[in-house]
Amino acid sequence: MPKAKYQRILLKLSGEIFGGKQKYGLDPEIIDNLAQEIKKVKQLGVQIAVVIGGGNIFRGLSGSSAGMDRATGDYMGMLATVINALALQDSLERAGIQARVQTAIEMKAIAESFIRRRALRHMEKGRIVILAAGTGNPYFSTDTTAALRAAELDAQVIIKATKVDGVYDRDPLKHPQAKKFKKLSYMEVLSRRLKVMDSTAASLCMDNDLPIIVLNLLKSGNIKKAVQGNNPGTLITS
User: Fold this and answer.
1) Which of 45, 75, 101, 166 could lock onto 233 through a cystine, CB 3.0 to 4.6 A?
2) DSSP of 101-150
3) Is residue 52 in some structural domain?
4) Is residue 227 a part of any domain in this protein?
5) pLDDT at 22 over 90
């Protein structure tokens, strides 16, 4: 079996994936399949941290556009990510993998608070660390959370798993002739305003020289391929 190119990764998951075809709520089958994909990567000896969005339950920007206070909406979105994190933890543990949920907002009854050294220790012991509640602050996306936590935890790469198999110049679902990029620079992402990550997250990755791989999570084995250095999506680097 080919060895892993990356020994420590941060996996960024879209909340919408957790909703399955309905795109909302929790689809147990999808979450169990995701746990199996993570298990394949863990079996390579890779240390894994996970950041999950909450768009399948609540999205702060959507609430804001409907008249809700932006900070309130963002806090609600952070709580939605905790629900997803607990669901993934449950699936991982049923698959025989130890996992810990750490949150940026203190909630002792259900999860640990995020402490960098404790998170690193968990990963060194082979546990999956699931990072929930964003940064704990409104106005920051879970993409920015992923970039921040990846830098804090010395991850070698961010793998952004979505429902699309890479980055395109246009929305491939609306434009069949859209061009897929195999490789991009951070500056190209920022200057072209490509919808990969928000500008704050992309800039943070650029400043810390953190490569990003965007791939299709729904295709079995894609995360494992990326970890082994066989990029199945789009690589963003300096």
Assistant:
1) 166
2) EEESS--TTTSEEP-HHHHHHHHHTT-EEEEESTTSSTT--HHHHHHHHH
3) yes
4) yes
5) no
